[in-house]
Amino acid sequence: MPQQIRRLTINDMTAWFGSGPTPGCRYKPKGRESRRALAAEIEYAGAVFFGLFENDRMVGVAIANWDGRRGWINRLAIGPGLPGPWPGGRN
Q: Which distant-in-sequence residues (6+ apart) come within 8 Å of 49 by Cβ?
């Protein structure tokens, strides 16, 4: 299973959220997860969006922000039904 981590685009994020909410995660399609809000956040210089891909299929997402002084991991998720082992996680 070749895995790759890369920066995400708005199209990647639309595909991720368009597949429906991840079980156990709050999903706000008319709020912070709307296409418009995600596009603005992706363009913000202090935000990074990373995806974990396995055989060209996105299986995980990490979104972080930095304001010049502090950093936050805002969202961290793997797709439903995807068991480990995952890099840096539990098996």
A: 7, 8, 12, 13, 41, 42, 61, 62, 63
pLDDT in tens, 3-44: 899 998 888 877 776 665 555 566 677 777 778 888 888 888
> What is the distance between the alpha carbons of residues 17 and 35, in angstroms, rounded to a whole number?
9
- Annotated domain spans of the chain: 3-78
For residue 6, the cross-strand partners are: 51
Tell me the per-residue pLDDT of 51-79, one tens digit each, with 9 for 90 and over.
998 888 888 889 899 888 999 998 888 77
Q: Return the CATH superfamily for domain 3-78.
A: Gcn5-related N-acetyltransferase (GNAT) (3.40.630.30)
